[in-house]
Amino acid sequence: MTTTTGPLLTASGLHIAFPGRRGAARARAVDGVDLDIAPGEIVALVGESGCGKTTLARSLLGLVPPTGGQVTFAGQALDYSGRALKSYRKRVQLILQDPSGSLNPRHTVYDAVAEGLRIHGYRGDEQAAVAGALSRAGLRPPERFFLRYPHELSGGQRQRVVIAGALVLEPELLVADEPVASLDASVRGEILALLLSLRDELGLSALVVTHDLGLAWNIADRVAVMYLGRIVETGAVEQVLTAPQHPYTQALLSVLPEADGEPVVLTGEPPDPSRIPGGCRFHARCQILASGEAERAGVAGACRTEELPVLAGGSAEQVACHWAAARGKGAGRKAD
User: Fold this and answer.
1) Strand duo 42-46 + 205-210: pairing
2) In a domain, 221, yes or no
């Protein structure tokens, strides 16, 4: 485990752009993100499909080199050379949402979990390491699962095998992309409880990528809400989800079953990341602007024309919104 006293992982000014088709403008999938994850902290990265959260997560894993900014881990800048990345990926492991797609149907559970050890040239007792990982993932007694195949397991058991395959390398950070989206409701709570217990027992950090604010409430210490390539609100999960300041966060929360009041139906789809609008990037869909509240607060013009600053990556509560700033609760100055 790392002994760093600062953030375990930091993204600083991260930009990721992809070439446009047939001469079109580059798609700015991640358009200026600062994000810290502390040792032992679980951060939920939340937003609609297409907001850039999966691209950001893949970059933090070293799978997508940034076009600007950098990623640091335990105080060291991420090196994208082959040998350095191999070492890094032993310390940072990915858990995907679909366990069936993550597991080779022709490999036994034992081989699936041992694969990472073999890739990284593990020289210890392979069987003991596999058994320990399966046991920590809640598959006990582990020997009972060694020779079973994925099709012989339930969905929850398959996800536990995927988690065991990550744990066997003794990582310091897990990146979980929609880790319970494909599971039955009855099993989701068990997997979330497992991830929390792993944090408590092993000191693991985790970035949980999800569209589900209810999941964030149940598992995260801190939440970062992402829209069109940028984090627009961040802070302690209790603060952000009980008193959201950004209209986008308010809209996402309003559709949860337990939410009070009428749900906010956002108009249209998120803009094309190759044509990000000026001003606040949410203004074309913003219910506060549409209702006249922003006009009454004297910020409607700023919403349409003045760009907002990139939020800092620390743990403080922050929001990038001219309307929230007018109410004394957000960052609304024009970006430098």
Assistant:
1) parallel
2) no
CA pair distance 70, 265, nearest whole angstrom: 36
Q: How far apart are CA 177 and CA 283, in angstroms?
A: 28
Q: How confident is the model at residue 23 (pLDDT cuts 50, 70, 90)?
A: low
Asked if 158 and 107 count as a contact pair (C-beta separation under 8 A), the reply is no
Q: What CA–CA distance (Å, rounded) separates 175 from 178?
A: 10
Q: Which residues of 286-304 are buried (b: 16+ CB within 10 A; e: fewer)?
A: bbbbeeebbeebebbebbb
Measured CA to CA, the distance from residue 128 to residue 144 in angstroms comes to 14
Whether the model pTM is above 0.90: yes
Instruction: Let me know if residue 308 belongs to a domain.
Output: yes
Mention every residue, 6+ apart, whose C-beta is less than 8 A from residue 251. 264, 266, 287
The answer to whether position 229 is within a domain reads no
Domain assignment of residue 153, yes or no: no
Q: Which residues contact 62 (CB under 8 A, 6 or more apart)?
A: 71, 78, 80, 85, 88, 89, 92
Q: Domain limits at 282?
A: 241-326
Tell me how many domains the chain contains. 1
Quick check: bond before 277 cis, omega within 30? no
| Strand partners for 234 | 224, 318
Tens digits of per-residue pLDDT, 70-120? 999 999 999 988 889 999 999 999 998 778 788 999 999 999 999 999 999
Contact of 51 with 30, CB cutoff 8 Å: no
